[in-house]
Design the sequence.
């Protein structure tokens, strides 16, 4: 899965608290629940979907 998000490079445990972006190829409606249930690893930190819209826009929040 590929997304467009405005992120700067950092180091492990130096990631933002939230990531906002948009999926480049949004999945079908039936796949959204499965995607929302998954976690995303970025810069050594785990993020969870806070919001995922049908147009592919999303917000990930750091999982503490």
Sequence:
């Amino acid at each position: 899965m590929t997304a467009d998000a405005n992120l700067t490079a950092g180091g492990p445990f130096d990631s933002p608290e939230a990531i906002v972006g948009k999926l480049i190829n949004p999945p079908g409606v039936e796949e959204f629940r499965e995607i929302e249930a998954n976690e995303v690893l970025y810069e050594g930190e785990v993020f969870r979907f806070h919001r995922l819209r049908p147009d592919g826009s999303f917000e990930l929040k750091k999982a503490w």
Observations:
- The helical segments are 29-36.
